[in-house]
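Summary for the lay section of the report: proteins are chains of building blocks that fold into shapes. Here we show the chain for dTDP-glucose 4,6-dehydratase and then a coded description of the shape we predicted for it.
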Amino acid sequence: MADLLVTGGAGFIGGNFVRYWARRHPGDSVTVLDSLTYAGNRSTIEGASGAELIVGDIRNTDLVETLMAERSIDTIVHFAAESHVDRSISGPDAFIDTNILGTNSLLKAARAVWLDGGSGHDHRFHHISTDEVYGSLNPEEPAFSETTPYRPNSPYSASKAASDHLVRAYHHTFGLQVTTSNCSNNYGPYQYPEKLIPLFLLNALHGRPLPIYGDGMNVRDWLHVEDHCRGIEACLKRGRPGETYNIGGGEELPNMAVIDRICEEVDGAFTEIHGLSERYPDAPAARGRTTSELKTFVTDRKGHDRRYAIDESKSRNELGYAPRHGFAGGLASTLRWYLDHEGWWRNLPNHPFSAS
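The coded shape description reads as follows.
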């Protein structure tokens, strides 16, 4: 049995991890620490057995130390982060505060309780990072490996790179037992509709433009969030302290191919699902037209990285990790989840589809 502290556990990836862990390890206790900003939601983890939500800020070191000591925490899984590149361009300060200062606060608390406090617990601090810290690849370059030099290009990726370095330093300087995983683009249930796939799905249902940056040929590796959760579990169970592991989905696709697939899936749903036209009358597919007519090219994002790709051979060889979700099936199931859980996204604050 383990006692976990999951930061950012009411967000997209963290919430899916909490649900996954509760199913896989029903005897463990999970304390979720989340400040419930716009992307965090209580309903994301409702019904996750053994999980308790504490509303608080990871920058509150005293709070983290108290939770760790009182609950005998032996594992921290650190998801809490500002993660939207567009927001980091318009407002970098929040990314510095959460991603760098917040991670430093957690590391200080972990050191105080696990090392300085002499708790004697075997422990693990697992840090969730991103492939964006490696920068942008040319078409002919090999995929990112764990030894690829860091060259972040946005305030978001720069702040995550800094947090990665802090985690590594706490291992090498103080002996904190850490692992880090760098993942590719996640998609799946409970994702706040600011990222490409949920935004385009909901825009398509409401007949709103599908805004495509630049020429739409920026390439990403797509990872279903459940596969990501399996990869994190493998890091916790079999990862070597001090090591970094890349977790990818094995689906390297240009954005335009993803968008075309979204359009096809939405069109197919309106053909197959009775009553969908009545629920979403503004969708082109509700009127016998194609979703692709909503595609709209917009000015490219500042500093937009051209290509990301993940070499996950280390995770395969050392952890036994391999993705199980192909993109076509994963996207289809994701669309059905959003159609079946309209109440979840309608109740999210501060987005265009909110019921409020």
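Put simply, here is one thing we learned. The radius of gyration is 20 Å.
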